Each structure stands twice: as structure tokens, then as C-alpha cells.
Amino acid sequence: MKSNNVFAAVRGxxxxxxxxxxxxxxxxxxxxxxxxxxxxxxxxxGTGVAYNVGTAAMMENPATLGLMxxxxxxxxxxxxxxxxxxxxxKNTGESVLSKNHGNNNGPYFAPELAYVYRHKxxxxxxxxxxxxxxxxxxxxxxxxxxxxxNDIDTGLDNFSRLLVLRIxxxxxxxxxxxLTLGGSVEAVWTSLxxxxxxxxxxxxxxxxxxxINGSLVPTLLGVPGLSGGYFxxxxxxxxxxxxxxxxxxxxxxxTYQIAPDTRLGVAYNFKADVGDLSxxxxxxxxxxxxxxxxxxGRIVVRDFQMPAQLSIGINHKFSxxxxxxxxxxxxxxxxxxxxxxxxxxxxxxxxxxxxxLPQNYRDINVFALGAEYRYNDKWTFRGGAQYAQExxxxxxxxxxAPAIPTTHLxxxxxxxxxxxxxxxxxxxxGLQKTVSNDSQPNTAVPIxxxxxxxxxxxxxxxxx
Length: 464
Description:
The chain has one domain (about 1-464): Porin, CATH 2.40.160. The chain has 6 helices and 22 strands. Strand 9 and strand 10 form a beta hairpin. The chain has a 14-stranded antiparallel β-barrel with strand order 1-3-4-5-6-9-10-14-15-18-19-20-21-22. Helix content is about 10%, strand content about 55%. By secondary structure, it is mainly beta. Residues about 1-30 have low confidence and may be disordered. This is Outer membrane protein P1. Belongs to the OmpP1/FadL family. It is found in: Cell outer membrane. GO terms for molecular function: long-chain fatty acid transporting porin activity. Pfam families: Toluene_X.
């Protein structure tokens, strides 16, 4: 009977996770990753590989599912991401905020939905989590929409929206009283909106580096008074993108009780393997003579993957009330995000254009600290901090994809109505970070971008 209930819950959760994915939006944090999953990890600075963080273990370290008490758990939560992003032209002092311009600006909403069944030495789980993303929208009236070649106000909107949805299927097994192993296989859905104006000077710089090719190149070069080119693919709903694809990911993890009050946790998140994102798009040539000349076609964004990550953490219980977690992460961005590789094929003619926008992200180290204090049977308080090295080289910064905060402070509280019903809240603040880019080809003018944000998470857990 119990197994039938488990299978029924799994089928229901899969359907609900797909439904929720149509109601969510994108988010932006440490590069494209969230700074912790679930209210416990988020409030404790993103730590979670050596501590019971509830069903969010599927995103942190699936082995910690084995730390949950026996029973069936259902969790439902929502992130609210509130970014504050400003781009500044360093030459003129003009600035523009990424706010109130359309569907790609914040606040963003992201789901956390999960079911876990724990029995004796085994635990099984399935969930749906926003695994990362970004979102900007600067509108069509700022300096970002004006070409430096021929000084044309194009009216073209510069924006981006990325959502990475992960649906993990997880298992944990208690090998001994000290050692627990875990693993996850994930369905990964990536969707992207993008609107990007490139000045002719940027196009020339990309061409000189061999980063532009295709049969459309002579056609574009033949446009009289060519002043710029503009890619635009977008889904106007509150979720999804003009280009999207499904793929697979996975995690392995373990926990080891190295002392009665001290636990070690290790987890490895494999690089995602998602197909090339594809969808309908427009390529617009900006002419000082003929105005904007749009071409309709299909877009493909090749090899757009989320990175591998190694996490090592330790949790020490100082008393029945107080525990502290320390964690180190190594995120392998360099292998995942060297270029934004965009291809366009014109409808009808089959003529094509390929562009490689350099990114050259660096592998980074992330350090996190979190503490939990159980005040009584009902109230639990948490706090933490996280610092991540900067992944984005200054000279490849794109205004539409900053994702530059490196320091987060966090806190949270949970209230247990009883042992089977818990409501939890977490908040993290990404401290303002400023990055400048004075170099072609990713900007036509010297720019400065500032980015800060506040992330809120509310979660309800029911055990039955």
C-alpha cells in the first residue's frame, strides 16, 4: 500500500512540476547559480552538503536525504528574486536601470516543489527546482539602444532572461552508522530570451577575431549605411524563452560521521548535458539610410550548459540547540561558459550567420558559513554568509548578462505548528558589486554595471 502511495505521489509531482514551470520566471545570483536551495540552506549561507536541509538535499547533496526522519514529506516553496541592475556609459554618464520595461525585468518567481519518502536505510525523492538563471530588460530608449556608428537611436530593446529548471530523481542509502551515499539523475530544461544590439565597430572587432561567419555576411556588409546588427528571440509570457531545450544532469554525494557531533559531506554536481537551444528569431540590420531591416528565421544557441561543481562541507553540533556549517565549493565555469555561440538561419533562403561572443569565465572558489539555533520546539533561527570569487572577466562583461554579486548575507526562521507541519522563511541579500568593461567586442562604449539584489524564499513542509 505504501509503495502505491509513493508511486502515485511521484506521478502527481511530475505533473505538478511541469505545470509550475509555466508559472515561474528567471533569477540571477552567483553568476547563474542560486546561493543555496530551500529555506534552510539559503538562510545558512548556502551550506548544505553536511546537514539536513530537508528535501532541498536533492539540489545540495542527495546523501543528506538519509538524515531525514522516517516518513513521507511534501514541500512547496517559492523564491522571489528582486535584482537591482544599473548600466552606465562611462563616457557620457548616461545610465539605465533594468526595471519596469517588460516581461524580462524583475521581480522573478521560481518554484521549489518536492516529495521525499524515507524508510529504514533508504530515502527516495523527486522534485522541481529553479537551478539558476538571470534576467535584465533595459528598454529601447537608453544609450544601449544607440549605435556609435552614425549615432542612430534604434529603439531596439536590450534584454535577457534565462531559466534553468531541474527535476531531480534522488536516492540515498545508509551503508553504515557513519556512512551514507546518495545520487541524483536530473531532467534539465533551459530556456532563454535575448535581445542584443551590436554596433558595427563591435561586429568588425568580432570579424577580425574570426568570430563571425556565414553566407549572410556579404548581404549584411552590402546594406547601405550599416550601423549595427540586432539579435532578438523572445517568449513574451512570464516564463520560458524564445529558445529552449531539454537535457540531463546528475549528482553524487556522501556524508560521513567523523565524530559524534561532527559530520563531513561531499557532493559532486556533473556538468549539464542540454541540447542546443532553438526557436524562432529575428536578425535586424540597422541602416542609417534604410532604417531597421528585419530578417526572420531560426536561432540556435549551441552548447549552453551549466557547470560542474564540487562541494565539501562540515557541520558541527555544539549543543542540542546550536550547530554550525562550513563549506567550500569549486565551480568549473571555464569549461561551461567560454563563448555564447549563436547561429541564425534565414527563413526561405537558408542563408546563415554564426556569431561567437567571448565570455571566458573563470573557475571560482566559493566559501560559505551558516549557523542554526533551535530556540524551542517551535522556533528555529538561522544565519549565514557566502563569498564567491568573480567569474566574469571585466573585458567580456555583457550588460544584458551581468550576474556579478559575489557576497551574500542571509538569515531565516522556521515555525513548527507541530512535528509534521513546518513553515520556513529565508532571505539573502546580494551586496552591490560594480564591474567595468572598456573593451571591444562585448561593448561599444566603456561601461560600468552595478548589481545588487534581495532574494526571499517561503516554504511549507508537511510530513505524513
